[in-house]
Please model this.
Amino acid sequence: MSNLAVAVQDLSKKYGDTFAVSHANFEVPMGTVCGFVGPNGSGKTTTIRMLLGLISPTGGTGEILGHSIKHPERYLASVGAMIEGPAFYPALTGRENLNVLATLGGYGTDHVQSLLERVGLGDRGNSKYKTYSLGMKQRLGIAAALLPNPKLLILDEPTNGLDPEGIQEVRDLLKSLAQEGTTVFVSSHLLSELELISQHLVMLRKGKVLFAGKIEDLFLAQQPFILVKTPNEIDLVKIQEIATSAGHKSTIRSGVAHIEGPAEWAAELNKSAFAAGITLSQLSPMLPSLEETFFEMTGDSE
Amino acid sequence: MNQIFKAQVFRAEWRKLRRPTLFIGTMLASAGLTGLVTSLLFLLIDSPQGNSDRGNMISRDILQLPSGLTIGFSNAAGLLGIVALCVFAAQTAQEYTYGTLRNLLVRQPRRLQLLLGKYLSMASFAVVMVILAATVSMSLAFGLSGKAKVATDAWVTSDALHELAKTFGNVLLSVIAFGTVGMILGLLLRSPISAISLGVIWLLIVENILIAVKASLGKWMPGNLMSTIATGGTSNVSYTHAISFTAMYLVVGTVIVTTLFKRRDVSN
Ligand SMILES: Nc1ncnc2c1ncn2[C@@H]1O[C@H](COP(=O)(O)OP(=O)(O)OP(=O)(O)O)[C@@H](O)[C@H]1O
Ligand SMILES: [Mg+2]
Model:
């Protein structure tokens, strides 16, 4: 068996004339946490539904745990998933909802209580689903995905509707699952939510995969810069001249100079400014977010 | 080889069916409707407006036959059928409106097995419903026979037992046929409200209007045919005709919806 949990080749889904997902290629190695990031409508859910055999691709192929996605019955017993948010029977309790899926999957209902506890619903298992808050519904969705004790866990925006504390809890949960050897494929529209826990990233935009690979490769591409403010515009132009003559590109946007260069060069700049008789009212070395780096790499500045 | 019937699907579906509001509610409705039809049969026995549906008269002589014991029960079959139609339609279509179908299919990706297990568990629900209705109806028949001056001697013969078995089988067939129509509508329309309202409006209004306009149409109307099965045939429509045309309608409907269900993208 290959060491890939997910691999797709030219995977596409066309609705009418438009591609929801267009010729996607990416791989998720076993045992990693892979973030699946893209803005609303970029095709994350559509891709995930194809991986789970819920919708059929209009083109391309894919393998999950070494089996073709044409035969979901061959691999789904080892896959847990939450797709497009939680969906349960409102009139049944959280526990009974999990029991339905546990019975259906043939897992037995013995570890339902421990799953409820694991997601922080230990004391609300007997409340009806319709009485749950958004965050509780989301947690029940995650518990349901953990029912098969999965080798591969696929979660579609699991932190939707969670407060910061809840988001942190989900991150910790995913981290501990990854430590136990579970491969996690988790989507979000915010890279910042996933960059702390992912080793791999797949970035999607308008149905196309723009980046797929190790998150380090994005870190390496991060371009540091320095923000400089002076009491007046004339001095700012002089600062720009100093930067240019030292070989650093710069731009002035709304009274602030953005100068490309590492944090270490800021001291140098300070010295040169002082020598030229310019007082700096602000000098801040910065690192762009991964998100900004990503859009820089792909030449997309939205 | 993969077995086609998965007990897991059957048991998982029962976890939804046994929900108190649904289970007790449906059983009470079935018992109540059957009880009402049976009671009227006996209480209005001397009423000039008739004691059966559409003002029909069922006389004391007929009620005193071995088959008299189960007339109330078989007359209620159409109503039981509508209850079954609603349950089957709602339980099927709600998987789409709640979005729970995607969870079910991740746990059981063999779509036909999922459908069959679900169907069989709802059919067993219908069996419970029909047993309860038969019990209620027969108890009331015995209870009200004195007041209505109907002799019950023939009801405790082996002939009566034979009639009971036959009627029970026919009512059950009829009710499950109605339920199947509900499931077909649920899968086609993917919304409980649309499926139930289309089903009920068709059965209670459209068919009756069509039959009132042209009586011979009754031979082809699915609701009328399914009710005819329950009564073992009428003077207008024979039992064999009712069974074969119902079977034909259901097979066509089932082939269409299973094909759709197997192929259709699940994006709810
Ligand atoms: N059943 C469908 N019919 C037609 N178009 C569809 C269908 N499902 C999805 N789409 C389209 O495909 C595109 C991708 O949708 P998808 O739900 O996969 O995006 P997403 O990345 O999950 O977005 P979000 O972050 O909002 O959940 C959208 O433009 C959407 O309108
Ligand atoms: Mg989505």
In short: Residues 111-145 of chain B form the longest helix (35 residues).
